[in-house]
Write a structure and sequence with these properties.
Blueprint (H helix, E strand, L loop, with lengths): L15 E10 L7 H7 L2 E10 L3 E2 L17 E2 L18 E2 L14 E2 L3 E14 L2 E10 L32 E9 L1
């Protein structure tokens, strides 16, 4: 029954917003000597990204419908739940079927959590004779936003079904770099 597998792609993103910026900071432009060398010509840049949740399919791992195929349960309710880490969707809205039977639940009928991140970079160029020294500090996921992964969607996993047990992004990360251009 291929109609049961009609639905959004696993990477379907309904809404996505991305914005970037680069700002040349005018600190100490009128200064002279060491003050100007340290405070002038800093560059700040960043990228903000947001997307709505990816779709996922509620499955029944104990339903053997053939090699390389995923068994689907019967859908008896909307499946929508409180969308918390402990219970993202309502597992009781999906009933197990006899192994070897195709359930009526569809493909990618529910959506996981949204995702967002802000990355910033601060850099300064120092001219050194015929070379250029570039100092850079990058911060990824500046606000340390917790981006949750998809929930366990296998109703055969009675202890963890509906729970989110993974992340879909890294915590805040920083890196420093020095580059010499000549």
């Amino acid at each position: 029954d291929l109609e049961a597998w009609e639905g959004p792609c696993g990477f379907d993103t309904r809404h996505r917003f991305v914005s970037s910026f680069v700002v040349q900071l005018p600190l100490a432009k009128d200064s002279h000597g060491l003050t100007k060398a340290l405070l002038a010509d800093w560059t700040v840049s960043g990228i903000y990204a947001y997307r709505t949740g990816r779709p996922f399919t509620v499955t029944q791992g104990s339903n053997n419908v053939g090699q390389g195929h995923t068994g689907l349960p019967n859908r008896v309710g909307s499946g929508e739940g409180p969308e918390t880490v402990d219970k993202w969707f309502e597992p009781a809205d999906f009933q197990a079927v006899t192994s070897g039977t195709f359930g009526n639940s569809g493909r990618n009928i529910l959506r996981g959590p949204d995702w967002q991140s802000l990355d910033l970079s601060l850099q300064k160029n120092f001219p050194v004779r015929r070379a250029n020294l570039n100092l850079r500090w990058d911060v990824f996921n500046v606000f340390n936003t917790v981006n949750l992964g998809l929930p366990d969607a296998n109703i055969a996993n009675t202890a963890t079904v509906g729970q989110i047990r993974s992340l879909s992004g890294d915590p805040r990360l920083m890196q420093f770099s020095v580059r010499v251009q000549f």
